[in-house]
């Protein structure tokens, strides 16, 4: 193979590292987005038998947002295999024990249950906050766009800027604000 | 149509007396076949049988068929001479001597001079044809492609594909690659004498130069210092110097690290290449651009094999 062909091959099968910020994102909807990068479905050379999946680093998995009352109602089932070994853990409980677990399980169950699934999962790196090892961060060359923009919360805005926001109504001076 | 009907009728009328249907295979067939196979396996490896030793071999008709098959007009005498190697004559004379003939004599001539002449002409034709179809390729590249085509292997392949293997007269058996290659150039030499150089050039083009079709030309020739060469080329053509820039990278700290280097001349994008390291990517990018300039790239227009070459002029 000539050097030219080798370069072409090397570029075609390049393994790209992506980063995804999970702050205020729905893990179950993001899972379907991240899955495509992990499997390599976004590449024109995709084939289930060739190795074309990319690496994805998910940061801030602690800050995910679940829909409705899913924190209280969503249940993660586990069975140890022994008699009476079944446990049902609520989403908020699981999240307090391991803040990466909900994202991991969401992505795992978003993929088809093939033999490749566990190997594909090895290309996923989840961090509860934004403390990613430096040498891992140096690999990254693409950011996956978030599904929803992170809203600006009022309490995060400093008081001086908050005062500059134009007001629609002015409370009367004797109005009891509670 | 009537003839066909007659034929079909006569086919229907054949009584299958000798081929009467039977629903069994005789008990002796299987053990006999097995024994024959067993004995064949036990034999030492047999040498390839010589086609000319078969009883139905007719050399004259083979020579005629060779000429007609290729739609060539070889002079039969010269064609015969082109196929006769010196080793064959030596071996024949020795055979006569062993038979007790005092003054062994054989009234045929060998193809030494055809080989010499044919090689020279083939080389010249190949060079001219390549120069014409790849006009921008430098002399080193042309010579590399020329050496590839004139290599023993390519010549032997061309020779065996036109069916010379059984007609060659030589002392060795089976025919070696070297002899096959020599026969091809001898045929070119004979064709020049039979018709003319221009016709021989079409022969060389049709059977030898087409060997370059669907080959990766950059594999046959690749500049050793591509970046410097590209710099010289751009400098000579546009009076500018080139600049390599890193335009992409992935997985820097992994074993699958990829670098994407682009080459620019006066802020104008020329081309790019990928590589394991930055230095390699830079070389690949330069080769990429050079191959496109020279017409060796896999996306360049393929070589044409229908051009007429005027060698004699």
TrEMBL record, chain A:
One of its GO terms (biological process) is negative regulation of translation. GO terms for molecular function: mRNA binding; structural constituent of ribosome. Pfam families: Ribosomal_L13. InterPro entries: Ribosomal_uL13 (IPR005822), Ribosomal_uL13_bac-type (IPR005823), Ribosomal_uL13_sf (IPR036899). GO terms for cellular component: mitochondrial large ribosomal subunit. Gene3D superfamilies: Ribosomal protein L13. Keywords: Ribonucleoprotein, Ribosomal protein. HAMAP family: Ribosomal_uL13. Belongs to the universal ribosomal protein uL13 family. This is 39S ribosomal protein L13, mitochondrial. It comes from Tetragonisca angustula.
TrEMBL record, chain B:
Its main location: mitochondrion. Pfam families: DSRM_MRPL44 (PF22892), RM44_endonuclase (PF22935). Residues 64-196 form the RNase III domain. Keywords: Mitochondrion, Ribonucleoprotein, Ribosomal protein, RNA-binding, Transit peptide. It comes from the Eukaryota. The keyword Lyase does not apply. One of its GO terms (cellular component) is mitochondrial large ribosomal subunit. SUPFAM superfamilies: RNase III domain-like. It is found in: Mitochondrion. GO terms for biological process: mitochondrial translational elongation; RNA processing. GO terms for molecular function: double-stranded RNA binding; ribonuclease III activity. The keyword Ribonucleoprotein applies. Belongs to the ribonuclease III family. Mitochondrion-specific ribosomal protein mL44 subfamily. This is Large ribosomal subunit protein mL44. It comes from Tetragonisca angustula.
């Amino acid at each position: 193979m000539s050097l030219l062909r080798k370069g072409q091959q090397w570029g075609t099968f390049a393994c790209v590292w992506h980063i995804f910020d999970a702050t205020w994102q729905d893990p179950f909807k993001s899972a379907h987005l991240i899955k495509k990068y992990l499997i390599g479905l976004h590449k024109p050379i995709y084939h289930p038998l060739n190795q074309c999946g990319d690496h994805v680093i998910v940061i801030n998995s602690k800050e995910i947002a679940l829909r409705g009352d899913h924190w209280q109602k969503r249940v993660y089932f586990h069975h140890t295999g022994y008699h009476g070994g079944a446990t049902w853990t609520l989403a908020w409980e699981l999240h307090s024990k391991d803040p990466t677990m909900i994202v991991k399980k969401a992505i795992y169950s978003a993929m088809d249950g093939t033999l490749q699934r566990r190997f594909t999962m090895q290309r996923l790196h989840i961090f509860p906050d934004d403390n990613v090892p430096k040498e891992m961060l140096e690999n990254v060359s693409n950011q996956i766009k978030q599904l929803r923009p992170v809203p600006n919360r009022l309490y995060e805005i400093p008081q001086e800027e908050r005062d500059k926001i134009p007001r629609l109504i002015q409370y009367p001076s004797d109005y009891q604000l509670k | 149509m009537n003839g066909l009907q007659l034929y079909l009728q006569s086919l229907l009328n054949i009584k299958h007396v000798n081929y009467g249907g039977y629903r069994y295979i005789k008990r002796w067939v299987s053990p006999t076949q097995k024994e024959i196979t067993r004995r064949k396996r036990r034999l030492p490896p047999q040498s390839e049988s010589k086609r000319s030793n078969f009883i139905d071999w007719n050399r004259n008709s083979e020579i005629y068929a060779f000429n007609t098959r290729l739609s060539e007009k070889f002079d039969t005498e010269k064609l015969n001479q082109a196929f006769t190697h010196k080793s064959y004559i030596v071996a024949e004379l020795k055979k006569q001597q062993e038979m007790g003939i005092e003054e062994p004599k054989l009234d045929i001539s060998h193809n030494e001079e055809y080989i010499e002449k044919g090689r020279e002409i083939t080389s010249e034709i190949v060079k001219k044809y390549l120069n014409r179809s790849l006009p921008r390729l430098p002399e080193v590249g042309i010579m590399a492609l020329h050496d590839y085509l004139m290599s023993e292997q390519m010549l032997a392949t061309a020779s065996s594909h036109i069916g010379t293997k059984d007609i060659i007269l030589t002392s060795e058996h089976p025919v070696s690659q070297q002899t096959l290659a020599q026969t091809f150039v001898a045929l070119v030499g004979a064709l020049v004498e039979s018709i003319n150089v221009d016709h021989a050039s079409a022969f060389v083009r049709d059977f030898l130069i087409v060997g370059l079709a669907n080959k990766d030309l950059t594999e046959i020739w690749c500049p050793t210092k591509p970046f410097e060469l590209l710099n010289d080329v751009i400098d000579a053509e546009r009076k500018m110097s080139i600049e390599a820039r890193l335009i992409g990278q992935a997985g820097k700290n992994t074993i699958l690290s990829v670098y994407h280097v682009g080459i620019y001349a006066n802020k104008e994008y020329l081309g790019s290449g990928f590589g394991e390291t930055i230095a390699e990517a830079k070389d690949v990018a330069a080769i990429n651009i050079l191959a496109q300039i020279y017409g060796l790239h896999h996306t360049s227009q393929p070589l044409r094999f229908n051009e007429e070459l005027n060698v004699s002029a």
